[in-house]
Amino acid sequence: MSYNIGVDVGGTFTDVILFNEQTGELTLDKVLSTPENPAHGVLDGVESATDKAGADLMDLAAMFHGTTVVTNMLLEETGARVGLIVSAGQEHVLHLARAWTPGPLYGWMAMEKPDPLADLTDTRGIRGRVSAPDGSIVEQIDDAEITDAVDELVDSGVEAVTISLLNSYLNSTQEEAVRDIIADAYPDLPVSISAEIVPEYGEYERTLTTVINDYARPQVINYLDDLETDLEAAGSTGRLNVVRSDGGLMSASAAKERPVELALSGPSGGVVGAAALATEKGVSDVLTLDMGGTSTDVSLVQNGTPEATRQTKVGYREFKSRGIDINTVGAGGGSIARVQINGSLVVGPASAGADPGPACYGRGGEQPTVTDANVVLGRIPSSVKLGGTMDLDRDAAYQAIEPIADARGTTVEEAAQATVDIVNENMYGALRVVSVERGYDPREFGLVAFGGAGPMHANALADLIGAYPLIIPPAPGVMSAFGFLTSDIQNEFSETYLEVEGDVDGDAVGAALESLQAAAAEWLRSEGVVDEDHAFEYFADCRYYRQDIQISIPVTIDELQSEDGISAIKEAFEKRHKQQFDFTLDAPLEIATLRTIGRGTIAGVELTPEETDATDPEDAVIGTETVFFDGKGQETPVYDRTRLGIGTEFSGPAIVIGDDSTVVVEPDHEVVVDPYAALEITRGETQ
Amino acid sequence: MSTPDFVREHDIDQTTLDIIESTLANTREEMDRVVETTAISPVIREQSDQFPLMADAKGRMVMGQFGSAIDDILENSPYTVDDLEDGDVIATNDPYMCAGAVSHTPDMLLLRPIFYDDELIGYASQWGNLMDVGGKTPGSIPVNATTIFEEGIRLPPTKLWTAGELDEHLLETFKHNTRLPEHAEADIKALAAGTAVAETRIKELCDRFGKETYLEATDAILARTRDGVTQLIRELLPEGETFTFEDFADDDGQGTGPIKLHMELTRKGDEIYIDWTGTDPQVPGTVNFLLNEEMFKMFTGVFLIMAFDPQLTFNDGYYDRINVTIPEGSVLKPEFPAALGNRLTLMARHFDILQAVFSDALGDKFSVAGSYGTSPNLVYSGVDEDGNQFQLLEILYGGIPARPGGDGLDGHSWWPLFKTVPVEYQEAYYPMSIDEYAARTDTGGAGQFRGGHGIRKVYTFEADGAITFQDDRAVTYPWGVDGGHHAEPSTKQLIRTDGTVEDLPSKVENIPVSAGDTLVFNTAGGGGLGDPLERDAEFVATEVQRGLISAREAKEAYGVVVGDDGSLDTDATEKRREEIQSTREPSGQFDFGPLPKYDDLAEQIATERAEFNARHG
């Protein structure tokens, strides 16, 4: 037997999903995370799941691992001490942080700005200068100065060093020379150069991104070393793949070089999994909604591919790393509702978190949360046990919502409904940002909802935004781990181009992309992907000359080298600009950046449709509940999801209880259990 | 002022109201994003120098960030409300035609009426700073002008789009009068796209909830904000007492200065009365600030909101609660055709004064110090080695005032959402190199909370050309408060290739520069807050190690003694702090720095300018 395993380490639980390559069977498991040494929790999960499936660790072909190690390090500021070497005169690049203050007027009065991740005391300016835009060297570096600076930094205790020199995106030889000098003296010291991490203009973002890489490196190296050792000791010889922020995979050794690419490793899995499932179902354009305890992640998938972004944000810091374009809003099951001074109701971003959690958890929480509102409205039936064991404290939920009702002069049910409506509205706003604002009509998309709380709110959201069908995957609570299994080995190779149409032709652009392709192919080979499994995509990020946007235009080398050449890019760019902004300009096209994405396909999981085995839905009804829809209590059947066979159909209103989440089906909606055991919800004929 | 019509019972479901309010708030952000991503001018897209609003059918701002002057704009246009139709966009950049809603000619304002079922239901408006609108200097913000006629082409309120049709001739005529016509067109279209987004979103709200519900909601949103601000006024400001503050801008760039602003604030019942009587008359130069009264009401309310309840929407709802007197013919209400280009110095100073008066009136509840005090800017223009015209406009930043609960930020923007243009962008697109960009050690006022440092930016020009810049706080000081010290002023030096060094005043126009010349542009810091002896000594030592304050400043101002390696000497520090404590004079509420007597300063300013003029003919 041969298995692949997906492992998603969360704050509380580690989700594991095991795929049997011969039988196609999936085994789900969940173990407690071990934040003090995350590798242990991973091993526990792997052992537990293989055990459950009757497999052996020796049978693991590959492991697909998403981790929040880097995310947490950035949020909690627990990374390494980084030394920073910059061009003289630029020592304050991170401290000044582009001078940005938040809006509105007087936003500076309340602004909280964390210290730079590389302290000013650990920052050194050195001689040496690359001129722009020609990239020539106008001042040489001084070896002795560099040696002294690095000795001082190492003596004072830095654990990694970032080199980020001005204009290195045009010429990286000085950064490389500095790296060589350091490597001679300190061969084991992790060192990153900015031209390799972000070969693009913008000294602040490039420096920040590279510093984050080094900030994370020592711990990531330790963590992955531990994990590899533990897995080997337990008898596994499978390949360890780590999930990147863009949903692709890389080997553990590549991850140790570029941990910045793991900043949003976890949330990307759900989107990739949702895209894979929806595409398999023949719905390749979907919005995704991942609602957890404190926040909701939404994104847009077109033609089966999640939209990507070059801007990744974790907490205060926004840096340049390729990621899935996930829009996060502070709306989750634990989001707290409160009435403001002017009477308006606000829900989130403050959250009751996991501890004490919502009032209904009965662990001392008193603040009114979204989950409490759902309990008051009957949307979480009494039969649901928290974590499978704990009873819900319905009275506590009621008492928590009561002050909202008092402040607004409504019934408690109305206050609970308002809380749910407002949190839905916040998620609706987030979904609009990724769709309507970018020129997409959400009515042409489906919606895939997952995460612990997503399926409870998704139907109302699908109505708001008009995205159907609504798809609830078979195991919405472990969607990320499932998604990891659907990922490919992937990396992006880019270069700043900054050429204006007329100055270059299609052949030149094509040649530049081909050289990026060569680099991508070499990387894929180093990742162990044979040439037959290589696939490449090419992009030209364009704008009108001196504009600040970069619209990524997919191109092919054949097209570039044909007669159309660059004009095809311009046409596609203008079409996209018009779609998004509703105007075009009589201005030259500038190609700002060229990118090649190299992909090595590996089959972590295969989805196979199952035969219809429709059952009488009545057989799955385990009770009824009074649930509030449109302000009225309605007797609503409660279904046990595990008893619904493939092809079974029923109508809303309904509550469907699964292993790891509760689905609310609004009145006048139709449900069918699809061949992949997902629930497909559509609007009824009366709508 | 009579009670506004929106103050009444509102027949609207509360949750619907919350949803409409939050959708409008999101739309306001979306308007910004659209303009910033599509505009070409760095001042709009990198520095976010643009502001949106959405108003109701009576022209009252429901959501947004500048004073609604829609009545004034229509009054100064050839149109009445009945002449407006779907798809119209009115454009103007004449401050005198919109009661100062935009306050200098480079700011282009677009106003789009919004119709639903053929009924006018509101307006969307947005303005942004164009790179150039003609006039005597590149960038259209001259120093040596005395009338607005020298500050470029002025478009009176005119339909640039009529029923969706762009008036190509009008746009062409306008563009033709600017030095950067393509920029002007792109930026105007970007602003129009911003207002179009608001129109779409508002129509969607009408589709979703019904037009009547939407209109009821806009009234209710105005009323809600009015209630919130009324409550803040009642709770925070003592009744009956008058609070006064006076501060100076340096000069008008032509030898007149210092320029006094004087403000008094009194609360009577639920209303605030603010009087600017005592402020200096308008000046010959371009620093006059045509202050829109509605906008000033917004600023006042926003201060209270941001200090005490930042989630509250700000809008025109509370305007009847604030009464403003601005004397005619003063620097805050200059008479046409006074020059207005560089109005940001007085705008910044009037914000400083508002902060000071509130620090005084709010007692222990809130104090904040004075800022770097303008929006320093630099224009460098010329012809590069390939024969192409270039024109760089950059906005610089300085020390943020120390604030309750925190230090002022070093080298940050006082103005919301502005960002530094990357050095690498400047070096790639303009013939210049940036040799240094750093916080200026010791320039923020000492205090329990330290004022932010000014910045030091060193430019070496690589092509012959000319520079124009405008800064302030070179001869007056950003003040400290509650025992905090004043900050250090701004300075400018031009270093020629032959090594000669010239100190320049804070405002100069079209100074020729040659390839190889270097400009050192130093901006002012922000004032400190609270007694520096109360500042954590360990943290003072850390700041010495970081190079943000010198060992000398640590000892003199903070009473903190550090060793050669910057480590804290606890015993010596204790002694030093006791010594300062026992010998110093008691401080007043504000520290204005070593300001000369008014007449002496006036003479110094006039003399410096005369000498400068003599050097530069």
Short description:
The complex is a heterodimer of chains A (687) and B (617). Chain A is α+β, with helices and mostly antiparallel strands.
**Main β-sheet description of chain A:** 9 strands, mixed
Q: What is the number of strand segments of chain B?
A: 22
* Secondary structure: helix percent of chain B: 25-40%
Provide a count of the helices of chain A: 17
Strand content of chain B: 15-25%
Rg over C-alpha atoms of chain B, rounded to the nearest angstrom: 25 Å
Largest interface, Cβ cutoff 8 Å: A-B, 71 and 85 residues
Radius of gyration of chain A over all CA atoms, rounded = 26 Å
Backbone structural class of chain B: alpha+beta
Summarize model confidence as the mean pLDDT of chain B.
93
Pfam family, one (chain B): Hydantoinase_B
GO molecular function (chain B): 5-oxoprolinase (ATP-hydrolyzing) activity
Biased composition (Basic and acidic residues) (chain B): 572-582
Organism (chain B): Natronocalculus amylovorans
Can you offer a commentary on this structure?
The complex is a heterodimer of chains A (687) and B (617). With 687 residues, chain A is an alpha+beta fold. Chain A folds into 5 domains: 113 residues, Nucleotidyltransferase, domain 5; 137 residues, 3-Layer(aba) Sandwich (Dna Topoisomerase Vi A Subunit, Chain: A, domain 2); 185 residues; 110 residues; 66 residues, no CATH class. Chain A has 17 helices and 33 strands. In chain A, the strands form 8 sheets. In chain A, strands 13, 14, 15, 18, 21, 22, 29, 32 and 33 form a 9-stranded mixed sheet that branches. In chain A, helix 1 crosses helix 7, helix 10 packs across helix 12 and helix 12 crosses helix 13. Chain B has 3 domains: 216 residues, no CATH class; 286 residues, no CATH class; 51 residues, no CATH class. In chain B, 31% of the residues lie in helices and 21% in strands. Chain B has a 7-stranded antiparallel sheet. A 5-stranded antiparallel sheet of chain B has the order 14-15-21-18-19, covered by helices on one side. In chain B, strands 8-9-10-11 form a 4-stranded mixed sheet, with helices on one face. In chain B, helix 4 packs across helix 5 and helix 5 crosses helix 6. Chain B starts with 13 loop residues before the first helix and ends with a helix. Classes of the chains: A alpha+beta (687), B alpha+beta (617). At the A-B interface, helix 3 and helix 12 of A face helix 1, helix 5, helix 6, helix 7 and helix 9 of B.
